[in-house]
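Example complex used in Figure S2.
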Amino acid sequence: MTNLLSMKDLSKEEILYLLERAEAFRQGDQLPIGGTVVNLFFEPSTRTKMSFEMAERKLGLTVLPFETGFSSVLKGETLYDTVKTLEAIGVDAVVIRHEQEAYYKELEALNIAIINGGDGSGQHPTQSLLDLYTIQEEFGTFNGLHVTIAGDIAHSRVARSNAEALQKLGAEVTFICPDEWKGEFPSSQHLDEVISTTDVLMLLRVQHERHHTDSWFSKESYHEQYGLTIQRERLMKNRAIIMHPAPVNRGVEIADELVEAPRSRIFKQMENGVYMRMAALEYALKGSRVWQF
Ligand code: CP
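Predicted assembly (293 residues):
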């Protein structure tokens, strides 16, 4: 069994292997993998939770339902004791989303595979992998692509996961955000300076739930300064694509009309997420054959 915790842990070869496996699953690969899985979501989710459940059913895995709100978590049971309990009853892998960054460090000694479904503002490896799969499907390569990541970067586990992986694969990454949200990234505030040279515009959600002070901007002013407006979209390269991990604040990061525009891959990302999560589950339960090469 193998953990999938952070994009930092994956080599370029392992990333490419996982993308290859996602494509094989799309093509109907039916390699049987047995196992019992539990999805533990301590933070809200629609896409990640539902696409993992879809992936688990497509793989024929046994999925035990777990609702944190009806579990002994409400009696104060710790994450460690919860996962230790699942290990004791014979669960093979858990998908965990948790608000605590690097929550998985306290679970390292357990004999159960852990797939990180998002840890606070830390990492979201399966989102990053499905984003990479979507980019590869579109362009066939990462080398020389200009990817612009724009939005609430400091609070974004998606930005953190994608930045390093994209650079590892040969893409050039630019960050655009208000100074208040740049975190550890070298960023600019001017989307207009890069919009016409960008191949992939990856927009990020404004994460109000992680802000500890009142918003210093209105929806309209954020959209005008940092969002993909209809005017900016017209400046994009012919083949450039729009991505967003979603959920989308329509009219804030992106104009409502552009969410389903021809160059938007937002719903394609969700479709790809199912195949990518099949690959992630296979990796966690069976390991990666990349090491045999
Ligand atoms: N992109 C993403 O992680 O969406 P959910 O929060 O709905 O899972």
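The pocket of phosphoric acid mono(formamide)ester is lined by residues 45-48, 118, 127, 245-247 (CB under 6 Å). The beta strands are 36-41, 62-64, 93-98, 113-119, 146-150, 172-176, 187-188, 200-203, 241-243.
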